[in-house]
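Bumping with the actual sequence this time:
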Amino acid sequence: METYGKILLFAMPAFLILIIAEKVYGVLKGEDTFVSFDTLSSISSGITNVCKDVLGLSVVVISYPFLVSKLAFIQIENTFLTYLIAFIALDFSGYWVHRIAHRINFFWNSHLIHHSSEEFNLACALRQSISSIVKLFTIFLLPAACLGVPVQVIATVAPIHLFVQFWYHTQHINRMGWLEQVIVTPSHHRVHHAINPEYIDKNFAQVFIFWDKLFGTFQQELPEVKPVYGITLPVRTWNPIKINFLHLMNLIRDAWFTKNWEDKLKIWWMPTGWRPADVSLKFPQKKIEDVYAFQKYISRESLLLNTWLWFQFFLLLLLLSHLFANIVQIGSPQLFVYGLFVFLQIYAYTELMDANINAWIFELLKSCLMMMMLIQSPDWYGLNQILNWSSQFLWFYALFSVIISFYFCKRRGI
């Protein structure tokens, strides 16, 4: 937990700098691929994901240490080759987990958020799930376990394997010559994120593209078919916490209302999008039929609102960095209260982005929790030692953010 938090202290600013660089490049080139609310939603989704991981809010059904202890028939030393084997094993596992997430109804819920953006840029790479609480597929690391790859090597390589999947979420890099035959490139991944009939459910590989070629899921980007991004059943919200559970709620509703008992069980394991016939009639879903003629989700923006939202985001980023740097000092249960504050903050300002009538109410809940935290820790868990005016500022922010949120709700005619 602490180590991962320290890694994120360096990773988060690096990702943010690259996102800003892509934005600037796109503007200068006249091909800006960023929309303010979409970008803020994407980065906020990444924050919820890393916060969940740092707090350890997940359960592994079959752990990698258990597999190694029971199945290793050789023990290899920590050499470069060991790390390479671990990387390839993680990539093999990642391919199958990714493919299963696209193909089975229940598992699509944990991956849907990554595809929910109707844009394609570096920010959407950060749309990661908080709903995958139970991790089932460590079994795909069986080859590494049999070879006795140490647990510490997997733990070291796993964040690297995750972070190197960031760079190819861009529209500004075209085909990359011979590298197209070896690694996943932006061209390959644009295909994966597209909902065009020619592209959908292709290119599941995470680093090495040869898995798709080996298992028959490869599709090259076609010059005459421009990728259209998103999902065929649009989420129609900027709130990443809501997006994480939309598909699950649909499955629960369909399982509850279908009159066929077989369908109540079958719906969870059927191909993604399958629904019982009776609930399809009772609760029709408006899917995208023509990918070239649908209206992207938009909300009314203004310079003032954008300024307030991005101010809230950067304040949250500062507080989150403080949390990651002081995990041990803050300790439990305060860590989980801090995590709840992070989630409430994101929920509140993304509800405001959605022009939701409840936005100021969630801002009020967040501010009440923030004031309780300030009463419990007047120096905001040691932040005053770095910025000696921080607690006074946070009191001011907690008191007035509700008023500002209420003002925007009324001003936008909610």
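The tokens above came from a reply further down the thread. Residues 277 and 353 are 35 Å apart (CA to CA).
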